TrEMBL record:
Signal peptide segment: none
Gene Ontology BP terms: rhythmic process
One matching Pfam family: KaiB
Annotated organism of origin: Gloeocapsopsis dulcis AAB1 = 1H9
Protein name (Swiss-Prot/TrEMBL): Circadian clock protein KaiB
Segments forming a coiled coil: none
Residue ranges of every copy of the KaiB domain listed in the record: 169-249
Lineage: Bacteria, Bacillati, Cyanobacteriota, Cyanophyceae, Oscillatoriophycideae
CDD domains, A to Z: KaiB_like
InterPro entries cross-referenced by the UniProt entry: KaiB-like, KaiB_domain, Thioredoxin-like_sf
Amino acid sequence: MNQAQSQDIETFKGIALFTPGGDLIYCIDPKKQGRWHLHLCAGLQEILNLPEPPHFLVPCYTATIDRWLDPQTQQIQTYAEAYPLVLRYQPLLNAIFQTDVVWQAAPVTEGLCDPILLATYRASFPQLWEEHELVVRFERSLTSSNLTEPVLPQPSTKPNLQPLGYTLHLFIAGHNPATERILQSLRQVLEQFNYPYTLKVIDVLKHPEQAEIYQVTATPTLVKVSPKPTRRLVGNLDNAEKLLELLTFPEI
């Protein structure tokens, strides 16, 4: 084996996607051409017979590794990071990627991987919370067309929706059963629109400065941060018509 062939084997980009139940699907790309998070979600959908790709697992249940050749030292360098929810799987990650490194904790934005918010998907995706002892290497060449070209979420046909994702902030006062019901109700209403969104949960008891910045005086309050203009909905968050108005109509 010549040096070029050896380098092709030693350098790669790897991605792992876990389920809350501990199952794993991963890919290794020796050509380092891209990241396949959506492909892995589509793979889980087919393997576990899910109603749709579980995009909400990204990035909170992911781990990535990159091995490259340092052009100055001609030495193989490795950087591996995993989100806190999957850091405990380091031995398994080292086994599948055939390495022996200490995985770094990926930085998490406040509210991004809120366990209560993630748990609201459990009723719709119960298979993800079950343990199937699943460890699958995703191979692009061995999968059906729906895995090689996963279907991305498409905008709703409802009038006035623009082809952009929404950034929403939900302001709450502490995590309790009432908060969990609010999150469950809000997620169900949002997903009726089948439209991409990012929801950040902000506890005003821990971050009063955020409430001041967004002029939040009562909870729960949902704030549409982008696209502009900023709008807010206070109180009843399970009203689909009010939520649609929040997303689609300009500030009055």
